[in-house]
Structures are given as structure tokens and as C-alpha cells.
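ingest -> validate -> predict -> emit
validate: passed (alphabet ok, no gaps, 562 aa)
predict: started
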Amino acid sequence: METIPQILARSVRTFGDRLALRKHGGPNATTYTYRQLGVHSAAVAHRLTARGVTKGTPVALLCENRPEWAVAYFATHLRGAVCVPIDTRLKRAEIRAILQRSRAPLFLASQPLRPAADEAAKGLRNVTVAVIEALLADTVTGTSAEFPASPSAVAGEDVAVLSFTSGTTGTSKAVVLTHRNLASNAVAGTRWMGVGRDDHLVSILPLNHLFEQTAGLLIPLIAGASVTYPGSLNPRTIVEAMRSCEATIVLMVPAMARLLRKRILAALAAQPRWKRRLFHAGRRAAPAARRIGLPLHRLLFRRVHRALGGRLRFFICGGAPLDPRLARFFWDLGLPILEGYGLSEAAPVVSCNTPADYAAGSVGKPLPGVEVRIRTHGGSDEGVGEILVRGPNVMAGYFEDPGATAAVRQDGWLATGDLGRVDADGYLYVVGRLKDVIVGESGRNVYPAEVEAQIGLCPHVREVCVLGVRPPTGRMAGGAGGVNEEIVALVVPNEESLGTPCAEAHEDLLRDGIHEACLHLAGYKRPKRFGVWPGEFPRTTTLKIKKHEVRRNLGQITLKPL
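emit:
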């Protein structure tokens, strides 16, 4: 299988009337079998043809997570067109910019998002907005209808998706991915993660994001599994969806894991004291029980498991570093969180832990067919360097930007801009971004993610962002004659832990907590100053901290010595 139409055709032929996609709850609850998904996608593809869509035509897609998103996605590929998925949370001006840059003549939108689509496309010549529900209204719904045996003449090297990245640096690039890029990654991921036809996934992350497209849509459809869309990101709705479909796998980002943990602890707080004590005692005993194969979690935490459907095998987490405390919390409950690593330019999965092959703190081993190597830079230590990736999943390039493409495609390898190391057993560890590296007072490299992970262990800190800034006195000794940076930690306090409403007491507790947490770091890695960030950190649509915005507003923060 080298193309998305081939994936769909095989799944329709193999799994037929099995449940494929389902929208949970509400008046618009819908279900699609594999056959229905194929037939509806083919019918919409026919209607795209009637609207002038030909092979290679960019087709923009704005739709909530629901089965109709998948229908529009597959219909676009069956026609041989290029899908341009758009994040539903973008502002109108941002959507308009994507329409202009991609030059998509057709803009598919769901009925609820029709006003946003119309406003974004207003005044753009040669852009037509079409409502997905209207295209579906006249499709054949009978089970006697057949999915075409040869759905299209798409080839593996043809462009499939134009993905606009969210960008933590303030610049959004358009990644060009071929059918081979996406299909190879989905096929390898299906085998690597052991997804099967008895699995039920709950789709939480936005489908415009490649992680959800590949791991949350293509992989389960290759395996014959089913996918449920909660219809809302409200934690209660997500848990209800997990329970109703008896979810076995859920994809998430760390921010969602924190919300789920908060919900579990809130429910625990309402329990009698003896149950709370038993819960915490069970957590303390869990690591030892896990080592000897004793299923302690089935006895002590069965209530939590039942609340989440009772069949959950594991979570897959990516998109940002996972707090080790958060991972340990879920592992203690018998709900493994498997960290993975990827990027849009790699379609997107590079590596992932599996239930049978797991190393705490790592992002697992590379998928079959994907190679990873580390290119060390000056000042690096502990085997840390830039992560390079090679394989059939690596993008064709950046859209209409040969210069940017040449900067990251080097001798067949993709220079990711991420820093990491590979241990003796082949597990990959990500330590941060190359552009975020701080050249400290000693002239040695400091990786913010490592410092953030350590500060995150302080119970008084809810979130942390570590930056390198020029010290107030300007130049510092050390380095190659340049301006070295001072390490600064910006934190969002954990009000529940701090307790006291006194601002001065807060500051003292934070200073002491951060100082104590950083004692485990080498001296040159420890922050010199800290500041309290008001409210929440600015984030991308995939919930990564926008460090360029944090840095831009740094002058409004009072920095205190540690």
C-alpha cells in the first residue's frame, strides 16, 4: 500500500460492515461502517469532479473531528487532489492566509463552520465554499452500493497533503507530503504499535494535525479498528466517549493527560479517607508489583479503569515533553502512557514506545524503515546532538520554498532541529530544540527541556518555560567571544500547592522549591533568575508553548534572583 486510496480500498474490501467511524452523543451522532465510508467517499469524490477538481488540485478542508472529516479527506484523495487541512481554531485571517498561499479553488467546510469559511473566503476570487453535509445529502446510502475496485490512478510519489505547521517560532511553513510518505508511516506504525481489529480509539487531537491523521485515522483503518469522536474536548464528554465505546487506545498530548489526572484526583477527593489512603498506598506499591508481574491495578484501581471503559490498553502521547511525574501516575494505575516522537516533516511518527518495548523517559525506538542518527555540535556533551531522520516518511519539501527545503534536507537526511541522544539499546531521548539551546556562562550548552523537566518536579510549579537571555550587565565571560546567556525560569504557580494567598510567601516558596529541584542539575545548568508568568503560557493549536511570544513579553515580567 503506497497510496491513501489503496489503504481505503483494502480496508473496505477486508472489513466491510465492521464499524469504522462513530460520532458520540448529541443529535448529530453518526456511524459509518467501512463499506459506508468507502461508498460515501467515492460519491463525494464524484461530486468534486463535477466542481472542476482534477488531479493535483488543492482542496482546503475545515471541519470538526467527526466521520465527515474523514469522508472529505478520502474523497479528495480518491480524486487525486491535494488535501489542505485547516485547524478549526485558527482565526479568520489565518484561514484566509492558508487559502491564499495554497491557492485552493475549493473550500470544503462543515455546516457549523460554514460562516467561518465564508468570512475567510470573502473577496477571494476563484474560491468556492462547499458544505460537506450538502455533498453527502445525495450520496448512495444503500449497502448494495459498491466501492470502486480501482479507485484512482494516484501514485506513491504524488502529493497527498499540504500541511501548514502551527509553528512555535512565529513562522508557519507548508509541508508537502506524498502518498508514500503517509502510507509508509501508517503501515509501519500499525505493525509497531500492535493495533488490531479489536481496538477502539477515541479521537481527541484535531484531525488537521498529522499525528491524529496518521495514528488516529489511517492506522486504525488499516488494522480494522474503530474510531470514536467525542464531539467536545470537555473532559467529561471525553471520558463518556471512552466508556461508551470501551476504548482501548487514546492519543493525547501532555496537557490532556494533566486534565485527566486532575479529574481522577477530583473524584478521589470525594471518596472516604480510607479509600484515599488505599489509593495512595497502591500507587506506592505499583512499581514493585509491576516488576514481578502482579496485576495490582486490577484490584486497587478497577474503579478508575471502569470509568474509562474498562478495556484501556494504553495512551500514546506526543507533541511536547511529558512530565515524568505524570507518566508515573498513569503507569501506577495500570494505564501506560507511551511517549513517541515525530514532526510534520516526517509524516509524522519517527519513534514510539510500545507496551512490550518501553524505556521510561525515552520516546522509544524508530519505526521499521525509519533511521535516526545524531549529529553532534560544538559544546555538546553526553552524546547529545541534532536528530537526523531518513526514511520513506520524510517529506518531499516545503511548499514553494526550495531554500528552506535545502536547509533541512541534507544528503538524504532530514535535519529536524531537535536535539537528542540514542542510548546503547537504541532508545531515543529528546532533550530540546537546537534553536533553544542556551550557551551558558561557562560556554557549555544547556538544554531548556532538561531544566524544565527538573523544575517541573517542584510541587509548587504547574508549568515552566526556560529561556536564555542576556544578563542585565550585558556581556559575560566565556564562550567564543560572543554574548553568552543567562538561564531564566518562568513559572506558572500551582495555587493548590502554595495554599497561602500571600504573594510574598508565594515567591519564597517558589524560590525555595525551584532551587531545591535544580540541586540535581550541574551548576552551569541552573537558572540564575526566575519570574512568575501571569495566567497561561501562549500556546500553538497543538498546545506547545510559543517561546517567541514568551520572549517578546519578557520585559513585562519581574525577574528575581534564585
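Residues 273-291 form the longest helix (19 residues).
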